[in-house]
Amino acid sequence: MSDELLLSLGLSALAAEHAGARRTLLALSLSANDYIGHTFGPDSWEAWDELARLDRALGRFLGDLDTRFGRDGYSVLLTADHGVTTMPEATLVPGVRSWCGPAVHDPWDRSCGPAGRILPDEVLLELRAAARVALGKGEWVAAVVDPYVYLTPAARELEAHRRALLDEAISGTLRRHPDVDQVTSTRSLPAECPPETDESVAALVCRSFAPGAGDFYVVPSRGSFFDPNVVVGKGASHGSPYLYDRVVPLLARAPGWIGGGVVIDEDVGFETFARAAAALLQVEAPGHAAMGAPLVHDPR
Known about the structure:
- The chain is an alpha+beta fold.
- 36% of the residues lie in helices and 11% in strands.
- The protein has 9 helices and 8 strands.
- The chain has helices spanning 2-17, 32-40, 45-69, 120-135, 153-156, 160-175, 201-208, 243-246, 271-281, and strands spanning 76-79, 117-118, 141-145, 148-151, 180-185, 216-220, 225-226, 250-253.
- Strands 3-4-6-5 form a 4-stranded antiparallel sheet. Strands 1-8 form a two-stranded antiparallel ribbon.
- It is globular, with a radius of gyration of 23 Å.
- The two termini are 41 Å apart.
- The relative contact order is 0.14.
């Protein structure tokens, strides 16, 4: 229902804007599927029912745009913000992981092995206990917030020897967790990260870290994830560096500006969306958008 209300609001906004008198950008974020996926998982009846309803709602929305502006009178960019993985519980259902057949090649690098969920509150208790064993009484671990572990101010001010003991206690505890693949102390990250062409996990972690974030970056094992904490112990999540979490579709329609029926099979950077939107709006492309693939060709 929230998606349908939002699409209706968008049409009302276009009518109030008297679109056609000037170039207008309508940006909509349809988030119902995200909430449903976090709660029930992407393989659930709830998620598939919502996708079917969203498909029909988008059809009605685009039909209304056809009526208002003509089939060639508007452009559309449709994409997503992230991927997702199957819930660990659903992997036990035969056929759910259809990409795991012996003769199947999965381009998204999804997991066919064991998968689990990392419960942040439980991990926090484990880390606090390990820190006290290493250092004695005190408050050393402040929080676990996907994908980071945050230390307390007192822990960050420890002298080098005691800080090393704490780092080892935290890293060791996390690495023994069956659903953790890698643990990186953010203090150890280089000042300059590897270039975009480097797709290794270490390079991806480096490029995703922002100063002021957590003290340890935790990478789940393939197919595992931090519990979304919507309904604890249920639902699915995302946020890993693996392809299935990072690759999303991009559908672009712009009569006269983008050729119809063109399919680009190779991956393109997220900058492609920004570059295409800027070209269609005829404004300067922001940031690193020039790195994106050139989808739009100015017909003038």
